[in-house]
Amino acid sequence: MGREGQWINQPITEAVDISNWKKDDEFGIYPEGARDKTLLYSPVYPSHEFLIPNHRYLYKYAFVRHPDQFWTEIIAYQVGCLLDVPVPPAFIAFDENDDSCGALIEWFLNYPEQPEERFVPGGDIMVNLIPNFDRKKGQQHNFTTVENHLNFLATNKKVAMADWLTYWCDMLLFDALIGNTDRHQDNWGLLWQSSNEKLKGMQKWLLFVRACLLWQPLNEKLKVRMTPVFDNGTSLGYEILESKMDDFYKPDDLQKYFNRGCHHIRWQLDDKAPVQHIELLESLVSKYPLMASRIKNKLKAFDMDSLKAIIANSTKFDIRIPLTEKRAAFVCHLIESRYLAISERIEKYP
């Protein structure tokens, strides 16, 4: 386990300059996703106490169409901490060499003094479970297939599977609260841990899993857990220009905006279209009634006033693309409105 979900304070005077950080040899320009990002190593002796020495960080920086979108990663981490969801720490950073600024997100693999883990993205799982799965469009990405696969692992005698259901409940609640529309098949995954030397060099995850089940001794279960909840930038009204924000304070316009937003994952393989975030949560609690209490308890413990104060504090960072007070207030308005809508719908479940 790393530091995901832990509140790590970044003083407003300590935006991180990554201009002299070393790029990762293999993924200097990180290939996944739509936005520009770079995988870097922090210095052996970092100048900020909140950073881990010589650890990987993903730098997601601003681009022309939505230059302040990186702020959604920062705020999503803050929301995750208050909701007790394992979101990787995200910090404000800049690069003096190209005058960019962005979110510096802590890599969730290979933490110091932690067992080595292997990351298997959900897309690899979908491709191997669903014939002709279109990874680019992801229209066959569905919860039922994921559920069946994770249940198989959880009941396998050679696997010690961490509680996957509460993870998915928490992640779907988190996505509903921030309005994340991009939890596609490669934005979640599994982390496998094995001490078996025969498995060290195996690259393809399917062969790796089959080999684990074949070679892993019964008294040495293979440990598997879900990844932290990463890549949360397509959320929180990032695409709404400040000149248009006033419209979304009108109840009818806000509701229309919420109605247009859907989660990426569908409930079943043959569903014709994605579903809205709250409908997805309702499908989950209808099948797993105990999750209704979990959601209610999470919402009850969520401190909106604390979040408003944290977000307001973020506007004080002195960087080229700041979080403006108007966007900060708008984001709080969206989160609070979604919070009330989720609470109202889930309250009817026992």
Please characterize this protein's 3D structure.
The protein is an alpha+beta fold and 350 residues long. Helices cover 36% and strands 13% of the residues. The longest helix is centred in the last third of the chain and has 22 residues. The model has no long low-confidence stretch (mean pLDDT 91). The relative contact order is 0.14. A six-stranded mixed sheet has the order 1-5-6-4-3-2, with helices on one face. The protein starts with 15 loop residues before the first strand and ends with a helix. The chain is globular. It has ten helices and ten strands. Among the domains are: 91 residues, Phosphorylase Kinase, domain 1; 83 residues, no CATH class.
Give a brief outline of the structure.
36% of the residues lie in helices and 13% in strands.
Layout of helices and strands:
Layout: E1 16-17, E2 22-23, E3 37-41, E4 56-61, H1 70-83, E5 90-95, E6 100-106, E7 118-121, H2 122-129, H3 143-154, E8 159-161, H4 164-178, E9 189-193, H5 205-215, E10 222-226, H6 251-260, H7 277-287, H8 290-301, H9 304-314, H10 325-346
Parallel strand pairs: 1-5, 8-10
Antiparallel strand pairs: 2-3, 3-4, 4-6, 5-6, 7-9, 9-10
Helix pairs in contact: 1-9, 4-7, 7-10, 9-10
